[in-house]
Amino acid sequence: MDIIRSVDGMQRRALATKVSGVRIGFVPTMGFLHAGHMALIRCARDLADQVVVSIFVNPTQFLPGEDFASYPRDIDRDRGMCESAGVDILFCPTPEEMYAPDRSVWVEETMLSRGLCGEKRPGHFKGVTTVVAKLFNIVQPHVAVFGQKDAQQAKVIGRLVRDLNFPVEIVVAPTVREQDGLAMSSRNARLTPRQRQDALCLYRALGVARGMVEQGVRDAAIIRAAMADTVLAVDGAEIEYAEILDDATLQPVPIIAGRVLVALAVRVGKTRLIDNVSLTP
Ligand code: AMP
């Protein structure tokens, strides 16, 4: 596995690879890898000849006061995991390498990124779309794999690629969970044993929503209230949002008629956790 730290080095290598007819699969990450990331890497392996993984904790997608500085990092462990997974290139630039001090161009999506995490973290998706556009230009992938765990992000990236004509196929891979249902996340490492138990309220609430839809409940307000009850039964869990949205447009729906995204953001202690499930009535 090659480790590339410079933008120029990565881009030159990618352009040379591309002209030789090799298909590049790309998995962008912020590191502190877990089984969810590994599943995306396996998916990229299946879809491409060569796999590039980026590890970059992107400062522009964190708001002031968020956990950029304390975001978990362990590049040595990540490197070993990538090597074992058969990754061909690990791209790990520094923020200084990625961003000129006088940078003045942003890429912004203005519809799908309005609600949910976009509303609670204003500017977050502008940082995401900007860094992903940059990474696509640097890594030149034929296919890029994102996780359903960050469903809104995956949709925003799909729109970025469509509207700016990036020649990249976007594949969304299912959420990987711990045995007890907790969605894997780098931030789970921050939970105390007690909070780790409390964090299961997200999965439980999504299960409640699924059960109600299966039983024929169609009123989104009733389901949202039941989800809120499930989360708030846990002391110290605080709901940021519990929404039921049209799966394509991410607009809230009052009555469930077609495919919906049930999305949750909950604070457990200082840790913000998100999870979702896509349901068809
Ligand atoms: P992150 O390193 O958290 O920015 O995530 C990098 C990629 O991994 C994103 O496309 C995420 O959606 C995806 N991802 C994170 N957690 C999971 C998970 N539990 N299952 C599947 N994909 C995930």
Concise synopsis of the structure shown:
This protein has 281 residues and is of the alpha/beta class. It is built from ten helices and nine strands. It binds adenosine monophosphate.
Q: Which ligands, by name, code or SMILES, are bound?
A: adenosine monophosphate
- What's the end-to-end separation, in Å? 45 Å
The amount of helix comes to 25-40%
Could you give the order of strands across the largest sheet? 1-4-3-2-5-6
Fraction in beta strands: 15-25%
The beta-strand count equals 9
Mean pLDDT: 98
**Backbone structural class:** alpha/beta
Radius of gyration, CA atoms, in whole angstroms: 19 Å
Point out poorly predicted stretches: none
Count of alpha/pi helices: 10
The dominant shape is globular
Query: How would you sum up the major sheet?
Result: 6 strands, parallel
Order of helical and strand elements? EHEHEHEHHHEHEHHHEEE
List the helices and strands and how they pair.
Layout: E1 2-4, H1 7-19, E2 24-29, H2 35-47, E3 50-55, H3 75-84, E4 89-91, H4 95-98, H5 116-120, H6 124-139, E5 143-147, H7 151-163, E6 169-173, H8 193-198, H9 200-214, H10 220-232, E7 237-246, E8 260-268, E9 271-279
